[in-house]
Amino acid sequence: MTESKDLFKIDRQNRLPLYDLIEQNFRELILNGKLKTGDPIPSEWELADLYSVSRLTVRHALDNLSRQGWLNRRHGVGTFIANPNVAQIAPSKLSFTEQMRAIGRQPSSRLISIKVIKAVAEVASNLNLQPGDPVIEIMRVRLADGEPILLETAYLSEQRFPGLEKKVELCAASLYECLTTQYQTIVTTMDQTLEPVLLTESEAKQLETKAGIPAILSKVVSHNRHGEAIEYAWSVTRGDKSKFYFSFRRGENGTSS
Questions:
Q1: Final residue in a domain of this structure, among 81, 99, 132
Q2: Rounded to two decimals, what is the model's pTM?
Q3: Is 161 left (phi over 0), alpha (psi -120 to 50) or beta?
Q4: Are the C-beta atoms of residues 242 and 89 closer than 8 Å to each other?
């Protein structure tokens, strides 16, 4: 019970409705890997006692989490952490590998190509380079439990990361881990924009689905702790196999973090 009290807790200083706080607590526990697929959760009565709320409040939260695909409620058996058929993508996690591992899914990549090219204006601008400067272009399909989720194209300065294009296997597995181990470069922050799009024929082929289905176009500029641009990447994520999860907190001084 002591362990349960450490897991199932809410911040009552937060002015959100209690059922909202309970939902946030569950999502964080799942995304952080503290609750894993198939794990049973305490009964409504037990949760009401742990959270010090009414059973009705707990039921409201669990109903919402079930509709959202976080929980699997089995009548007469209990409620369990679901194995969602979509990838929960949390932008607070910097890499796709981290995101998938956090929710208990097995990340992998399929390398399409890796080569040195001349930077076009958009790439050069985001990496603080000059148009025509050499950059490494890495095209990959990212998978969760063997299922294609997103198609990604990343660009990095060839001068900053010489020979990176020759480290094919390392880059295909986890680019950020490769940068850390091979170049002592750690990505600490990223700027990301999201835009709804429809998959093109070529994108759909790589993602093993139909052209024209909804997708999310993401553009990211990653930085190291000094604020230097490390990577510029864009990706298209299948709308039928993923959803983005955002969690923001307002600090005591009124600022969000």
A1: 81
A2: 0.62
A3: beta
A4: yes
